[in-house]
């Protein structure tokens, strides 16, 4: 898998580099406008640029996977003496690395602009040590992994069903349907097993849905906020892990044993 | 007798169309086999199943006594009939790629073949003409010490002078430990390479045998025999 990962990164660094250069130019350009333009305008455009860069990188990385199944480069990748899991692993890891790079640089540029725009009101240290920030990072990584694996799985199923590349968009319908089914299952699961980890005391508590003030279904971890405390549903965490492993192994199996090029 | 490839009652269907229709084929180790047939006869389908990128609907295929999978991919050196190298690569990247993934890849042999084919390591894959791309693919495929070479239309895009050079490269590379399965429409150009030939039509083997024995028996070249078998 490491060898394929090396070539995945080598083959994609130029496009990611272009995205990053554009993002840096926009963010630093906005930095020079601080004092001239309203702070909210600066931060609005900065956030939009960071989001745009992340979205562009994400679409490009998904497209790299899709191309393996619909373009001629698949004849190279799928005749290598490696397992389907290695292919999925290399694609997933390279995507995570680039999303992390773009996200981190985007985040730092956003903080840089925020610091200059809002001055003493922003305290970086408190953001990074905040428990909810750490929870958000863990949950964010798990969400990106789940979404990428769901997309890989959907593209693979779509390719197995219809060979014609002109109807390659079928994967998106499969992806939406899978998301709906999974979200429905998550809700039912927490109704059946309403046991949570209280992230303040790390104790297991039973909570009813009527206590919930904020619900956050972000793909991998279902969080509930009750009076500011974050609660993680135990059954849902287990389901999320099983789902990720299942999607990974399922896609690897289909790529190795079922794909017709 | 030991076989490098054995296909038994192999079928492949695409909805109503049958690409392979109960095909039976055995290739002995150490032989160079020409697989001949018109467009749509099932040649590429069989090759793709052997290469592990297409699944049969029914029947069995074994490569070196293994079903197509990770092992068989490590002993097959496959030349597809299309440009499969990523656009970002230079010739040197492609050599490194093969060297990293195939334990039987001989880098020095690759450099010799590059010189022979008049290709330079710094050339970008996207800057190569169709003929040069085919030469690069052949360089990569022939630089492996594989048990089975599968070449799908290996000289279709190159000029007649280059064809002879490439055929020489194929013959020089070939040894008794390895076997070759070659498909082509350019029968006259390539028939000197074949030990055995297999004629395929409508997904079935309709004639097969030792190339020299067939020439003597029919008093025809393989090219003439091809025209007789598949002519109107």
Your description of this structure?
- The complex is a heterodimer of chains A (261) and B (232).
- Chain A is an alpha+beta fold and 261 residues long.
- Chain A has eight helices and five strands; from the N terminus they run αααααααβββββα.
- A five-stranded antiparallel sheet of chain A has the order 2-1-5-4-3.
- In chain A, a hairpin with a 2-residue loop joins strand 4 and strand 5.
- The longest helix of chain A has 35 residues.
- The two termini of chain A are 22 Å apart.
- With 232 residues, chain B is an alpha/beta fold.
- Chain B has one domain: P-loop containing nucleotide triphosphate hydrolases (Rossmann fold), CATH 3.40.50.
- In chain B, the strands form two sheets. Chain B has a six-stranded mixed sheet, sandwiched between helices. A three-stranded antiparallel sheet of chain B has the order 2-1-4, with helices on one face.
- In chain B, helix 4 runs antiparallel to helix 5.
- The longest helix of chain B is centred in the C-terminal third of the chain and has 14 residues.
- The interface between A and B is medium-sized, with 23 and 26 residues.
Helix fraction of chain A, binned, reads over 70%
Structural class of chain B: alpha/beta
- What does the radius of gyration of chain A come to? 21 Å
Average the pLDDT over all residues of chain B and give the rounded result: 90
CATH class of chain B: Alpha Beta
Uncertain residue ranges of chain A = none
Q: Architecture of chain B, CATH level 2?
A: 3-Layer(aba) Sandwich
Number of domain units of chain B:
1
The fraction of residues in strands of chain A falls at 5-15%
CATH-assigned homologous superfamily of chain B:
P-loop containing nucleotide triphosphate hydrolases
User: Largest sheet of chain A, order of strands side by side?
Assistant: 2-1-5-4-3
**What's the average pLDDT of chain A?**
85
Q: Which structural class do you get from the secondary structure elements of chain A?
A: alpha+beta
**Rough shape of chain B?**
globular
């Amino acid at each position: 898998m490491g060898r394929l990962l090396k070539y995945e990164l080598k083959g994609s660094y130029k496009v990611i580099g272009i995205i990053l250069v554009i993002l840096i130019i926009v963010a630093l350009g906005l930095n020079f406008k601080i004092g001239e333009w309203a702070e909210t305008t600066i931060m609005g455009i900065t956030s939009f640029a960071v989001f745009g860069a992340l979205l562009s990188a994400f679409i490009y990385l998904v497209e790299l996977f899709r191309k393996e199944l619909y373009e001629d480069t698949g004849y190279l990748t799928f005749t290598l003496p490696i397992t389907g899991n290695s292919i999925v692993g290399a694609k997933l890891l390279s995507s995570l690395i680039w999303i992390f790079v773009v996200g981190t640089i985007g985040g730092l540029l956003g903080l840089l602009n925020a610091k200059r725009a809002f001055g003493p009101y922003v305290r970086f240290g408190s953001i990074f040590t905040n428990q909810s920030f750490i929870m958000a990072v863990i949950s964010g990584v798990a969400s990106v992994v789940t979404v990428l694996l769901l997309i890989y799985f959907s593209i693979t199923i779509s390719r197995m069903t219809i060979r014609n590349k002109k109807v390659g968009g079928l994967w998106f319908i499969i992806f939406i349907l899978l998301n709906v089914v999974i979200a429905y299952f998550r809700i039912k699961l927490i109704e059946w097993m309403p046991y949570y980890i209280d992230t303040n005391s790390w104790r297991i508590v039973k909570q009813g849905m009527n206590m919930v003030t904020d619900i956050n279904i972000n793909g991998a971890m279902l969080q509930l906020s009750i009076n500011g405390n974050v609660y993680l549903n135990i059954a849902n965490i287990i389901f999320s892990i099983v789902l990720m492993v299942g999607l990974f192994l399922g896609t690897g199996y289909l790529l190795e044993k079922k794909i017709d090029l | 007798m030991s076989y490098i490839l054995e296909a038994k009652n192999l079928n492949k269907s695409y909805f109503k169309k049958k690409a392979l229709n109960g095909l039976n084929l055995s290739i002995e180790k150490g032989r160079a086999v020409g697989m001949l047939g018109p467009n749509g006869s099932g040649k590429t389908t069989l090759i793709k199943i052997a290469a592990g990128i297409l699944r049969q609907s029914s029947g069995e295929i074994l490569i070196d006594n293994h079903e197509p999978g990770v092992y068989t991919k490590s002993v097959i050196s496959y030349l597809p009939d299309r440009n499969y190298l990523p656009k970002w690569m230079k010739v040197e990247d492609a050599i490194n790629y093969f060297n990293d993934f195939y334990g039987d890849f001989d880098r020095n042999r690759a450099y010799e073949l590059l010189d022979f084919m008049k290709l330079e390591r710094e050339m970008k894959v996207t800057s190569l003409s169709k003929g040069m791309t085919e030469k690069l693919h052949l360089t990569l495929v022939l630089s492996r010490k594989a048990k089975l070479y599968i070449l799908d239309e290996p000289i279709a895009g190159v000029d007649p002078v280059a064809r002879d050079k490439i055929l020489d490269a194929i013959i020089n590379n070939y040894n008794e430990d390895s076997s070759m399965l070659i498909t082509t429409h350019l029968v006259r150009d390539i028939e000197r390479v074949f030990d055995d030939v297999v004629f395929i039509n409508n997904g079935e083997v309709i004639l097969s045998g030792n190339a020299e024995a067939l020439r003597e028996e029919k008093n025809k070249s393989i090219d003439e025999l091809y025209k007789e078998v598949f002519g109107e």
